[in-house]
Design goal:
By secondary structure, the chain is mainly alpha-helical. It has helices at 2-26, 42-51, 57-63, 67-70, 90-101, 105-109, 149-153, 156-165, 185-197, 209-220, 225-231, 249-256, and strands at 116-119, 122-127, 143-146.
């Protein structure tokens, strides 16, 4: 079939591109990779776009003015209006961290207290797989990225201090490891249900959509693709990546704080009763 033929051709070009990458990385080949980007044919690009959509501004506004952020009954009934802001629940923090960091859900849910660090005056997430229960998608996923000041104002560091006083090791002790060995399974199911409950779920939106939103946000702010890809834990495939050091924490911090997060500016930093 035409689709099968295109898929076969794409894989063949990907293999050739991989050979050139090997020659560049391991054999000091100084030429260019003529197949870089060639595998991204129209069909592949369309498939990539169809896989996940970013959230629209309306969806994000609805999400961050929903009961879990304005007041809900309880963590288990967080879709029902009430007086509680559940800042001790992963349900409050996961969407916010996803929005402001573009981290994968697994990367967030497996964070430990020790992974919240300070570099000079900048607080950051240390994304790693130092412990047996921490899983990363690729070697490039290991990185350190700044924590946005909005998250700090919303009380993330206060929460970290509470957990330290309680001798907890993980940032989200209320998330249990699944039978598959990860921490993201149950939160992923919860988030999908919550999107449905507040009326913003579509077939092409999920927690992963936050990564698309951050990528679009970087692009709209005029930040380079290379920086945004490294921020998200991906490589661009550029030959230039072989030279020099990674982006500094200061550069990441500067770029992150150029982005606009207007849909959450209404969040009250001194919210109602919190628990």
């Amino acid at each position: 079939s035409p689709t099968l033929a295109v898929t076969t051709q794409t894989k063949f070009v990907q293999h050739l591109s991989s050979l050139y990458h090997f020659a560049i990385d391991e054999l000091e080949y100084s030429g260019k990779n003529p197949f870089h980007g060639r595998a991204d044919n129209k069909l592949a690009e369309q498939h990539s776009r169809d896989a996940r959509n970013p959230f629209s501004e309306k969806q994000l506004t609805t999400l961050f003015t929903s009961p879990i952020y304005t007041g809900c009954k309880s963590p288990s009934s967080c879709n029902r209006p009430g007086k509680l802001i559940p800042k001790t629940s992963y349900k409050f923090w996961l969407p916010l961290i996803g929005l402001y960091s573009g981290m994968r859900l697994q990367e967030i849910t497996q964070l430990r207290i020790e992974d919240i660090q300070q570099y000079n005056d900048i607080w950051l997430f240390d994304i790693n797989a130092r412990h047996e229960d921490q899983i990363l998608k690729t070697p490039q996923s290991v990185r350190k990225i700044p924590i946005h000041e909005d998250l700090i104002q919303l009380g993330l560091l206060d929460r970290v201090r509470q957990l330290q006083e309680s001798k907890e090791e993980r940032l989200f002790p209320d998330i249990n490891r699944s039978s598959q060995g990860n921490y993201s399974g149950n939160p992923s199911k919860w988030f999908g249900r919550y999107l449905e409950q507040i009326g913003v779920k579509t077939d092409k939106t999920s927690f992963h959509s936050f990564r698309h939103n951050l990528k679009d946000n970087f692009r709209n702010a005029g930040i380079s693709d290379e920086l945004s890809e490294h921020f998200c834990g991906r490589k661009t495939g550029s030959t230039a990546e072989r030279y020099g050091s990674a982006y500094s924490i200061e550069r990441f911090y500067e770029a992150l704080h150029k982005l606009q997060f207007n849909y959450v500016q209404g969040l009250n930093k001194e919210n109602k009763t919190c628990t």
